[in-house]
Design a protein that fits this description.
Layout lengths: L3 E4 L3 H13 L3 E6 L7 H5 L2 E4 L12 H10 L4 E3 L9 H9 L3 E2 L4 H8 L1 H10 L14 H11 L3 E5 L9 E3 L5 H16 L4 E5 L5 E9 L5 E13 L2 E7 L6 H18 L3 E9 L5 E7 L6 H8 L3 H9 L16 E8 L1 E2 L5 E2 L2 E2 L2 E3 L6 E5 L6 E2 L6 E9 L2 H14 L1 E3 L5 H8 L2 H4 L7 H4 L9 H27 L5 E3 L5 E3 L2
Parallel strand pairs: 1-2, 1-4, 2-3, 4-5
Antiparallel strand pairs: 6-7, 6-8, 9-10, 9-12, 10-11, 11-14, 12-13, 14-21, 15-16, 17-20, 18-22, 19-21, 23-24
Helix pairs in contact: 4-5, 12-13
The protein binds ligand MV4.
The site of ligand MV4 has 17 residues, from strand 8, strand 12 and strand 13.
């Protein structure tokens, strides 16, 4: 097995990976920037190396510094987590070239799936259904001709994009050329690659992804799907497993194709096949994510498989511990991303000191967090503070548990998405599983933003109400027990 693992990340995912290493008896090495010197991932690892100042470009994205830390600490493997360098094929190759083990898919696979057009071609050849679209290396004139065949509305995508970055909708013919020019410029600036391609824009679809695990011995399994449609500007906010839109037949179909996709890609490690599911329950391959994902925990909760431990074992050359027949879905899991953002101010990032913290626990609740009382939330990294996961035997129980856990959760000092999540859990559309990627824009209104003078009045009212509530609670505690009790048949009767 691996002896010592360097975790090239921070925050909740670095803590998650350290925990998996600990359970497998592996030593751990953290890397950190100046502002993270007392962060939880640093405290939990056996050793830690400073890799530079706060900006990610000078620390968590510095390939050389990370590899140096791995060598200095005599680590034998590197886990990249998600974000930062996780899908950087050059970094993965540099890790291998340094004689270290890369805990992820082979660099060639990362590179191949990073080219979204090449990925489409490879997946079409493997038998996956694609959204009608164009090839990748076409001129504007050729794309205009293809657009006529596909029809409108269209989506322009960047060949080196992914995750919704560099996407642009085109709703009528006369806008196409202008939009393609803008898209090419943006793609060149963002990815250093101006290749674009066209797809038919599918509106009102669901975003569904299938988790796969592949070892280096040719074994591939799938762990079912995650529903990821509740998102805002391509930032996912709530995920769940399984999807309320998918029945056993569809699940088997999608799962089988996801396994085919992984096999065709020559995959190893944990990966995700993204699909779009339209209103008529047709589904289409979108892209393949060659990393551990933020939302992997909901799959872990319903399958019982520890995905991070499997990644570590696979990287060590072990065979998968499961065959497909071992995988059964049990219950339902929902994840709320707790972000340092103000949902009532258009989700602007919120920074400051965590001055108070009460964390939910109890049956069916899992919290993956990197916040602690006194933590400074800075603007340097993404705003994810914690992932709150609730499991239930049924979707209904999972929702009620999530409400209960959200009610227990208090984060004081900064604005968070906690109240937003409570509102979603209370929405009838969410409860009914009736939502798609347009849900937040079309069917959900956050409370009106109050004017500053109204805010003061609201704050006073809230204080008075809280006071009243506390008095009430006090009284209840001191009231004599109820004179009513239930008889053996559940009927109320007066105590004697
Ligand atoms: C699409 C699409 C509709 N039609 N492609 C977003 C993430 C990236 N993997 C691809 N994505 C999409 N591709 C076609 N042809 C819808 C999405 C999409 C989306 C689009 C707009 C707003 C929110 C979205 C959420 C998930 C997926």
């Amino acid at each position: 097995m691996l002896r010592k693992v360097l975790v090239a990340n921070r925050g909740e995912i670095a803590v998650r990976i350290v925990r998996a290493c600990q359970e497998l008896g592996m030593e751990t090495v953290a890397v950190y920037s100046d502002v993270d010197r007392i962060a939880p991932h640093v405290r939990r690892a056996r050793e830690a190396y400073c890799i530079g100042p706060a900006p990610a470009a000078e620390s968590y994205l510095c390939e050389d510094k990370i590899i140096q830390a791995a060598q200095k600490s005599r680590a034998d493997a590197v886990h990249p987590g998600y974000g930062f360098l996780a899908e950087n094929a050059n970094f993965a190759q540099a890790v291998l070239d340094a004689g270290l083990i890369w805990i992820g898919p082979p660099p060639e696979v990362i590179r191949a799936m990073g080219d979204k057009v090449a990925a489409r071609q490879a997946m079409a050849a493997a038998g996956l259904p694609l959204v009608p679209g164009s090839e990748g290396n076409l001129t504007d004139e050729e794309l205009i001709a293809v657009a006529e065949r596909i029809g409108y509305p269209l989506l322009i995508k960047a060949a080196s994009g992914g995750g919704g970055r560099g996407m642009r909708g085109v709703y009528q013919r006369q806008d196409l050329l202008k939009c393609m020019r803008v898209a090419r410029n943006e793609a060149q600036a963002a990815f250093g690659d101006d290749r674009i391609y066209l797809e038919k824009l599918l509106d009102g679809a669901r975003h569904i992804e299938v988790q796969v695990l592949a070892d280096t011995h040719g074994n591939v399994i799938q762990l079912g799907e995650r529903e990821c449609s509740i998102q805002r500007r391509h930032q996912k906010l709530i995920e769940e497993a399984p999807s309320p839109a998918i029945n056993d037949h569809l699940r088997a179909q999608m799962g089988e194709l996801a396994v085919k996709a992984a096999q065709a890609a020559g995959y190893a490690s944990a990966g995700t096949i993204e699909f779009l599911l339209d209103r008529d329950y047709n589904f289409y391959f979108l892209e393949m994510n060659t990393r551990l994902q933020v939302e992997h925990a909901v799959t872990e909760m319903v399958t019982g498989v520890d995905i991070v431990k499997e990644m570590l074992r696979i990287a060590a050359g072990r065979k998968l511990r499961y065959t497909q027949d071992d995988i059964h879905l049990n219950g339902w899991a929902i994840e709320c991303r707790i972000l340092a953002e103000d949902p009532y101010r258009n989700f602007i990032p919120s920074i400051g000191t965590i001055s108070g913290l009460w964390e939910p626990t109890g049956p069916g609740v899992r919290l993956e967090s990197s916040v602690y009382p006194g933590a400074e939330i800075t603007p340097y990294y993404d705003s994810l503070l914690a992932k709150l996961v609730a499991w239930g035997e049924t979707r209904g129980e999972a929702i009620l548990r999530m409400r209960r856990a959200l009610a227990e959760y208090r984060i004081i000092g900064i604005k968070t998405t906690l109240p937003f999540h409570m509102q979603v859990m209370d929405s009838t559309r969410y409860q009914g599983g009736q939502f798609d990627t347009n849900f937040l824009e079309q069917h959900f209104t956050l409370d009106e933003v109050l004017r500053p003078d109204q805010r003061k009045v609201a704050a006073i009212a809230a204080t008075l109400l809280a006071h009243q509530h506390n008095r009430q609670a006090f009284v209840i505690q001191h009231r004599a027990s109820s004179p009513w009790k239930l008889d053996g048949r559940g009927r109320a009767m007066r105590r004697r």
